[in-house]
């Protein structure tokens, strides 16, 4: 049963109305730019289906996003959502086309001489296939794809690759796949798998995938309308760009590359096509402030590097670029506008970095810095610097964490009690759960939603079954969500309210670490993932060693479990309990599917020498993660 959502309070209405006086809502240039170059909207009203006829993306559910902002949506977020809901095929400039808002990320199609170069391929096969079908339906020549460029190793930029090419064509040299850095595989697959369970659970909150569309629910993802559903895949790069200044000629066009590591991703690159005077700074420049630390969870990024590499891009190409296009949001046209856009974003990230550390050097803590932090008006009022992905508040705290770590210098935060224990003690000190709930209710009635959420949260941690505490915390989160400009803050608050009322979701969220992704992992990363799944306390007294001769891997591997740790090496072991010869897919199946090892052994797909129970013992020591664990209450290992 779905619990009823509550309307905006008078305090929320006033907070959202104040936004209208603070920002330049009379500036509507972005609306014109978003529709510029439109060739055709998405067919079928924006509905995309998979091969079984199941809907994987439905743009019609956003038809309501129009007109003045409702009381339950921050007007700035509503404005951004009205812009990005427009979906279809657009011409960016001569030879460059984009399909936008069929997914959270754009697909960019560059027409060369006799072939296409695809810059970032979206999240899923189904949504990217729909993008390519729309492109081919409106272009006179059905040119083949000759190259794919991954600008960085995030799923929404490589997951749809099977819609534009095949592993066979890549292996045959018919299609090149270019990507930044020598460690692209590691970052693309490692981030999405090794921390995939917790990241996917948190991403479901941050990206609003559990919320129904509507004025009291999901409005947009801010940098794109919404992530599409369907299957994801990965084909490793065949050409690694490793230094600024490298060039490639693809389909007769020159692509110049600039490395931008440790920015929005550990490996990222910008690229410029001089014949077209077209630049993309990948996801380092958007019509939004980006994350220095994502709410879904990822390595903390370097705000100084955002600024450094945007400045370098201006130095390299600022005098010539006539258009900037990106994998999210919409392009910027005209040399003066492009350089102002990049310089404004550069200065925003540099201000965040430098002023956070200035305040830290004065002794302010991360939350004190975030509470006092404001961008200068020239930066903060620019629409492209508003917090539709990252926010100033959590980015300032992230800069502190990047440079100084999680500890703020106060010993009170060095060795705190776990939340469940501290919750019980706070509730007891205040006078019991009913007293805490009464105080939280008073705070809600006074519009003090942050304090109400903290108070009620103590009672929830003390007793996760306390219905009144959960309800009052949900009420507080709901109003905070309605007021949030950042869609990820909105989604986190509203999803938390929903789960406090209804419990965790019954269905598994979209996962970034599916079986196809695991199967594509390099052996080192695969074994790293197995090591993370090893239950150390249960394995503390276990000693076993297994050699792996994987048929499609040139190097033999060995692994050893001892003292609760799984180590692995690119060499045979000295005295293994078991040696297995098998292919990679059989190994992955055996590690993840109960009974698969014995089936493959009986069918002759595994050659085993030694004690086969060693593999059984290994698998028995591997944890299986709950994909819908509770984010809002205490936990036990």
Protein architecture, described:
The chain is an alpha+beta fold. 41% of the residues lie in helices and 15% in strands. It is built from 24 helices and 21 strands. An 8-stranded mixed beta sheet has the order 1-4-5-6-7-8-9-10, with helices on one face. β4 and β5 form a beta hairpin. α7 (184-194) packs across α8, α7 (184-194) runs parallel beside α20 and α11 (366-372) runs antiparallel to α13. The radius of gyration is 26 Å and the shape is globular. The two termini are 30 Å apart.
Q: Could you outline the blueprint of secondary structure elements for this entry?
A:
Layout: H1 10-22, H2 29-35, E1 38-41, E2 47-49, E3 55-58, H3 75-84, E4 88-93, E5 96-100, E6 107-111, E7 116-119, H4 125-138, E8 145-149, H5 155-158, H6 167-171, E9 176-180, H7 184-194, H8 196-206, E10 239-241, E11 247-250, E12 253-259, E13 269-273, E14 278-280, H9 303-317, E15 323-324, E16 332-333, H10 335-361, H11 366-372, H12 377-380, H13 392-404, H14 419-430, H15 433-445, H16 449-462, H17 467-483, H18 487-502, H19 515-520, H20 523-533, H21 536-539, E17 544-550, E18 557-562, E19 565-569, E20 578-582, H22 584-592, H23 596-602, E21 607-610, H24 613-620
Parallel strand pairs: 7-8, 8-9, 9-10, 14-15, 17-20
Antiparallel strand pairs: 1-4, 2-3, 4-5, 5-6, 6-7, 11-12, 12-13, 13-14, 15-16, 17-18, 18-19, 20-21
Helix pairs in contact: 1-17, 7-8, 7-20, 9-10, 10-13, 11-13, 14-16, 15-16, 15-17, 16-17, 17-18, 22-23
């Amino acid at each position: 049963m779905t619990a009823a959502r509550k309307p905006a309070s008078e305090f929320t209405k006033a907070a959202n109305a104040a936004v209208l006086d603070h920002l330049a809502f009379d500036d509507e240039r972005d609306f014109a730019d978003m529709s510029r170059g439109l060739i055709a909207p998405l067919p079928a009203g924006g509905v995309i289906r998979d091969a079984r006829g199941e809907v994987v993306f439905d743009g019609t559910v956003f038809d309501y996003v129009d007109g003045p902002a409702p009381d339950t949506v921050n007007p700035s977020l509503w404005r951004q959502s009205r812009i990005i809901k427009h979906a279809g095929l657009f011409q960016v400039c001569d030879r460059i086309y984009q399909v936008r808002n069929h997914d959270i990320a754009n697909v960019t199609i560059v027409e060369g001489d006799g072939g296409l170069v695809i810059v970032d391929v979206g999240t899923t096969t189904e949504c990217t296939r729909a993008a390519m079908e729309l492109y081919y339906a409106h272009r006179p020549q059905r040119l083949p794809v000759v190259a794919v460029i991954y600008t960085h190793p995030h799923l929404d930029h490589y997951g749809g690759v099977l819609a534009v090419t095949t592993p066979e064509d890549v292996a045959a040299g018919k299609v090149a796949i270019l990507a930044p850095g020598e460690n692209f595989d590691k970052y693309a697959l490692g981030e999405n798998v090794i921390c995939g369970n917790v990241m996917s659970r948190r991403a479901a909150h941050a990206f609003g995938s559990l919320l129904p569309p509507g004025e009291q629910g999901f409005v947009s993802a801010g940098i794109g309308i919404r992530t599409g559903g369907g299957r994801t895949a990965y084909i490793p790069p065949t050409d690694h760009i490793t230094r600024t200044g490298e060039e490639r000629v693809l389909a007769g066009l020159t692509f110049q590359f600039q490395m931008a590591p440790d920015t929005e991703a550990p490996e990222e690159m910008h690229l410029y096509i001089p014949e077209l005077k077209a630049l993309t700074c990948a996801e380092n420049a958007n019509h939004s402030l980006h994350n220095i630390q994502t709410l879904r969870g990822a390595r903390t990024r370097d705000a100084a590097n955002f600024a450094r590499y945007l400045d370098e891009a201006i130095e390299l190409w600022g005098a010539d670029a006539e258009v900037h296009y990106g994998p999210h949001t919409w392009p910027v046209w005209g040399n003066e506008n492009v350089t102002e856009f990049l310089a404004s974003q550069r200065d925003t990230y540099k201000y965040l970095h430098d002023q956070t550390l200035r305040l830290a050097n004065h002794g302010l803590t991360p939350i004190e810095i975030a509470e006092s932090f404001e961008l200068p008006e020239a930066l903060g009022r620019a629409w492209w610097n508003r917090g539709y992905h990252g926010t100033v508040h959590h980015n300032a705290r992230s800069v502190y964490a990047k440079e100084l770590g999680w500890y703020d210098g106060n010993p009170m935060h060095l060795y705190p009690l776990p939340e469940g224990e501290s919750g019980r003690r706070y509730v007891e000190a205040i006078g019991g759960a009913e007293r805490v709930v009464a105080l939280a209710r008073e705070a809600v009635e006074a519009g003090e939603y942050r304090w109400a959420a903290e108070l009620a949260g103590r009672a929830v941690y003390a007793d996760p079954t306390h219905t009144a505490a959960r309800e009052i915390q949900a009420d507080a989160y709901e109003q905070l969500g309605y007021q949030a400009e950042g869609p990820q803050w909105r989604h986190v608050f509203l999803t938390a309210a929903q789960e406090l009322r209804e419990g965790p979701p019954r269905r598994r969220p979209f996962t970034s670490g599916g079986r196809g992704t695991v199967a594509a992992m390099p052996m080192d990363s695969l074994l790293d993932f197995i090591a993370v799944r090893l239950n150390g306390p249960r394995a503390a007294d276990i000693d076993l060693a297994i050699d792996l001769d994987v048929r499609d891997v040139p190097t033999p591997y060995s692994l050893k479990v001892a003292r609760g740790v799984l180590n692995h090496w690119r060499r045979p072991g000295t005295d293994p309990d078991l040696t297995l010869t098998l292919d990679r897919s059989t190994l992955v199946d055996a590690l993840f599917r109960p009974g698969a090892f014995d089936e493959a052994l009986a069918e002759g797909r595994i050659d085993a020498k030694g004690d086969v129970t060693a593999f059984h013992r290994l698998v028995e020591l591997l944890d299986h993660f709950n994909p819908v664990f509770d984010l809002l209450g205490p936990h036990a290992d």
